[in-house]
Amino acid sequence: MWGRHRSETARERQATGSGGLQPLGAIDDLRRRAAWERLSEAERGALRGEFAGYVAPPDADQTGQTDDALRQWVAALVTPTFQTAAAQVIGTWLSDAAPGAHLYVGGDAGQGRRSLTASLARQAMARQPSPPDYCYVPQPAAMEQAVLLAVPGGTGGAFTKAIDRALRRLTAGWSGESADGDDHASGSAQSAAEPSTAARGQLIAQAFAPLQAPELAPTRAYVERLRAAFEALAASESDLPVSYDDMPTWLVSASAGTPASASASDAGDSTHYAPVVVGTLVRDKLDDLLIRANGGVLILPASDVLGVDGAWPALSVALARRNLQVKPSWPALPLTTRVALIGDGAAYNALAGVAGDFAQLFRYETWLRPGASWTPRSEAAYATLADGAARIYGLPACDPSAVARLIEEGARRGDGLNRSYLITDLLLLRDLTVEAGRLASARGATTTSGTDVAAALARRRAQQSGSAQRVREAILSGQANTPTAGSAIGQINGLGIYEFHPSEGDFAVPTRISATVSPGRDARLLDIEREAEQADADHVRGEMTIEGYLAYRYGQDRPIRLMARVRFEQEHGTTGGDSASAALLFTILSSLAQVPLRFSHAVTGAVGQHGELQPIGGVNTKIEGFWELCRLRRAQGEQAEGGYGALIPAVNARDLMLRDEVAESIASEGWFRVWPVTTVDEALTILTGLPATEVHARVEKRLQQFREAAVETPNRR
Fold first, then answer.
1. Bridge partners of residue 542, in order along the sequence
2. How many CB atoms lie within 10 A of CB 58?
3. pLDDT tens digits for 82-120?
C-alpha cells in the first residue's frame, strides 16, 4: 500500500514493536518530483503551447509600478490554470450584475487578485460605449446657479470650452469692453458708454456662433435657452445679473479624471470604451477616482478603504445614493461607477462589522484559491511564470531543473495535500526565480538551474533559522528537558510548530507531554493549559474527544472513575489545535497501563472518538523538525534503541513533501522512520513494543481498581 520498503527482520520488529505495520521508506513515498525536467523538449513545448502568446513585457516591473501590460499577462496565466472559478464570478458580475451590486475579490497577496480583476474588467468595458460627459453650466434663468447636462462621451470638452469662450466674450463686451474673444479681457470693468441693444444683439450672435457646430448638436436645446436669456437681457437693456467668475462652467468627465475648469485644459477628450481605474486612496482622492471611473469600473484596495480616514463612510454613501456631490448647491452628479474591492479575510470581516451597509452594497464576492491541482498544465504555467520573471528582470532563463525545483517548492508550501496541489502565490514564485537567477548570474551561468533554486531556498532558511537554533540549543544543552532516547510511563514527545513570518522561519520541535491518573468520581480530563486559559477552542475540543474515546473503549458496561491530569511540559505560550490529542491520549493510556512510551518516536495526529487517527496540518515541518533534532543528538553520540521516528496519521501520507536531505536520509540511512498510523491500536504497538490488546487489558485492570477505590471511598461533602 505504501510503496516499496526494505524487509524488516523479526528482531527489528520486536525492537520497534511495529507488528505488521511498515514505515514509509521509499523515496517516492516521502516526496514527489516534478515531471517537468523528465519530459522531452517536444513534450514541454506541447504543454506550453496554450501559453505561447503570453510573453511578459520586459522591464515592466523595474520601477516598482505594475503596468497594464503586466497585469494582463498575469491574468492570462492565472485565469485558465489557477483561478478559473474566481474569473467566472468576476465575469458574471461584469456582465450580468445589477448596477448597484458591487464586488469583493478576496484572497492573499500575490495571487493576482488585482491583475485578474483589472484585466477582465478591461475586456468587458471595451465592449461598452464610452460613458457620457457631464457639464455644469449656467442656469439660463439664474446664471449664478448650475445646471447639469449629460452629453455624449468625448464631446464635453469641446462644449464646455466653447461655452466658456462665449461667456467670456459676452461678459467682456456687454458693457463695451473688447468683444474679440480675448480670454484675458476683464469681465468686471465698466466702459464709459453702454453698447446699444443692436450692438449687444450682434455680440450675442457672434458669441453663440461657435456653439452651432454640428458636433455640438446634442447641446442645441440648452444653448438656445441660454441664448434666449441673454437676448431678453439685451432687449430690456439690463446689465448682466452676475459676473463671469460667478457663472459655472465645469466639465466632469470619466476620461478627464477630475472635475476641472473647461478653460484650464482640454480635459475630457474622447474615449472609445468605459473606463477601468485601478486606484489607491493613499495617492488619489476618493471623489476623483469615482469620477474617473464613472460609467466603468473602479478597483480599490480594501485596506485603503478601511485605513484612510472617512473613506468607507464616503464610499458607502456615494454607492448607496448612486450620486456624488461635486460642489455644494450644485446638482448631484449621477454615479454609475461599479466598485471592486481587493482584500483579504481580515479586511472583509472589518468592513462587514462597520456601519455602511457593506453586505447590501457588495453583494458579489469571490475568493482566489491558495492552491491549484498539480497537473502538467499547472507545471507549464509555473514554467511560463518563471520565464516571465527572468525576462522582466533581465536574468538567465530557468532550465527544466530550475522549473522543477520551483514546482516542488510550490507543492511544499501548500496547506495539506502537498503532493496534489501547487500554491498560487505569484509573488513568491517571482521572488524565488529572481533570487535564483541572480545566483546564476553571479557564477556566470547562462541559465538558472535547479541548483540555483535550491541554493536560494537554503539561504532563505538559513537567514530565518535564528529562533529554531536557539530552541534546539536549549534542548541539546539540557536547559529544556526533552529526551529523544529511553522511555517513561505517562510521557511522550508531541510535535508542534512555531510559526513565524516569513514562513521560512517556521520550525517544529518535540514538546514533552505528560499525564498522571488517579481515581475520580467520573471520567474527567483536567488539562493544566485549559485551566490556565492558555488553550484554544480546537485544543479543548480535542480533549473532549479523548473523553469520548475513553467512554467508547472502556465505559460501555461500567462507569469510568478517573481523574487524568495532562500537561505540556515547558510550554509557556498558548496551546492551539487538536493535533496533539492523540499524543495526550497515549500518555493517559500509558499512565493507566503502567507501560512506558518511547521518547525516540514523536507523535502528531488528532484522535477520533472511535480510535481513528485523523489528519493534521504541517506534517512536513513536524517531521523535519524532529528529524533535525534527532540528527543532532546522534551527532553527539546518542543511540536510541529501535531508532528514531515520527508517527503521523496515515491519511497525511498524501501530504509528504519532505526536503531533499530529509527524504534521502530517511530512505537510505534507516535510522529515522515515518510511521503512517491509522488507529490508536497501531500507534500503541509502535510506542510501547507491546500488542495493543495487552495495553488495553492493563488499562481495564487499572480502571477496575479505580472503580473499587471509588466505592470504598464515598464522596464526602
1. none
2. 12
3. 999 999 999 999 999 998 999 999 999 999 999 999 999
